[in-house]
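Quick one: Integrase core domain from Bergeyella zoohelcum, structure tokens please.
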Amino acid sequence: MNLLANDIIVRKYHGTESVWLSQRLIMEVCGVSEEYLRFSRSKYKEGVRKNLLDATYYPDTGKSWRWARPKGEFYYCIDNIPNQAPTHYRSLFGDTEALIKSWKDQTTNTTLTQLETDLKAYIEEHYKEYLSYYNGIEEVKRQSLAKSCSIVAFMMERKDTYPGTKMKLYKDLSIILEKLKFQYIPKNPLKLKEKVTILETTDHCITEIIRLPRQGHQGNLQYTDPVIFAWALHLRASGANYSNLHIIREIHKACDRTGRKKPSIRWFGETIFEQPLTKFLTAEKRFGSSKKSNIYRSYIPFEDALNAGDCWQIDATRVNIVAHETKDSEGNKIQKHLMAVVVRDVMSGDILGYNLTYSENKTSFAKALQMAVKRAGYLPYEIVTDKFPGYNTPENKALIERLESLGVKLRFTHLATDKASVERWFGTFQSVVLMGSKYYYGEGITSTRENAHRSPEYLESLKRESKKAGFDVEQAVEECENLLEYWRNLKYSEYSRKHKDFHKTPKELHEESEKINTIEISPLQKSMLFDRKIETTIRHSGQFHIEVMGVKFHYMINEKDYDVISNYQNQRVVVSYDMEDLSEVHLWTKQGNLLMSLCSVQEFKKVVKYGPNAELGRISQAKARQRRIQEMKEEQYNKIVSGIGEEALLMGIHTNKAEANQYEDEHNGLGKIIPLRKASGDDFSEYTPDEFKPEELLNSLNI
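--- reply ---
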């Protein structure tokens, strides 16, 4: 016999117990049709008193097929099932107690299993809806409370449809909850029903009846002295960074002096030191500017640079390869490490320039920047750097002012976060590129990574090998340059999981990127910014010389720049020159820290006068230059001395027309140049014949 959970109802009424079988079970066991049962119900209904016709369970009239209709389903009392021959319907069900026991055995396990499956699915689907009501509670407890709320909601949904008595749902759930060991929900059936009753009869919500036990209860709070809290918080916020035990000992001493009761060590931990509020209030004061306080500081998210040249960041770091042997100023052998001052483009990550030195100094910034400008061919929109040693020297002040005059924005900062891009790059460079160098000795001493440092034995053998191989400054510089260039040509996809599908190198990315915010720079401006400079005096009709490393280089200003020759004779000017190419230099005059360009001058090498290789042609060229300068000098002199007066108009037939016209022009103010003004429509002359449209011209003239 296939018994289902809703096939039998055991009804207790006025101390009498009756057993009711479902119509489905009757039809299956007895083999009767639905029409037969409908006819039997109508016959039985005829014997029921009129005032009881609306009852769910009809009274026993003594006739066959007593029936009831609870929850819209037909049930028949087992005691009123006929047992006449030849069908013997009643005998088919056997003993009533045996039938009930069999029904319970078959359905209890099935019902509980199905109920447990439904409960778990409901909890998984709905518990997240209640998480927000328990913010601020430990995550494990928070989830348990939310799941308990979903269990109560499950009971509210199932209480009217669950088969059996009104307590059946709660009894079955108590077995399941005992098995699953849910917290914050009672296991007793009566307590479960009580939760549902509260929700039905009051205006409470589920989250108000499911809460942490003893929440807000302060019966076990032993120490409420605010002075002790103040002492502990003050010592925890100290920049001395005292340990917890030291603070507790100091407070215990203070309690002895003032007669206060001493809290236990565990009380300090639970009540003060382990509380999030304590860490929030004291972390910044306790840790200061160290990285441990960063998680308690707010920050502003920024977009990365969108184009190459939007921003260059400049910073210096030690190159972590083994020290090489060199000599100090007194000739003593010493061990030194190289430092790299790098210029990094924020958008592409390309290292455009660098300067390898033993320490940051006043020239390292300019040299690294010079290399970057030479490689890139432009000036960036903005440069961010720290206040490097020598930033306030006259040379660097002048360089900074000249960069700003060309439109570059310079920002000096002492915060690593303001140039975070290049700061992070140092770590990436160490872990990706330097790691593969045989001379790499590991990261800085503050690094806590497991692979940050080589073993002492390995470092000792590395020092011996490098010394034996004659590892000197030249090899160290070559190694550093090779590593930096290797980085520039390393694809991001080779080492970055974030950019695993980006197969470009920093160098390629910089070259291909748009440079819409950069500043164009000419060779003359490059010389003004970065070339070496020396002051000299122009003598001998535009001649001067400079001395570089003990060697004199002579220069003659071209006669085409006669204005410079005439106006700066015996005057001090600034000469900028490139150490790698002294064939051409540039002359400047000072305007504060700025320079105003005068002209460019070619080198004049000394003429060979004697012997078979005498350069007589060059002598003639030099003399020709001198003659032309002399002629221009005489012409300018005569023009100033002669002066043209009104007598030029009174010479009669001997009048010089050029002089007369010149006097009239000067007298009438016609010597001034009047700018040409455009006429309406003359901008159409800018178009080619194919582009010219007569209709547009006529419309513009309103014809």
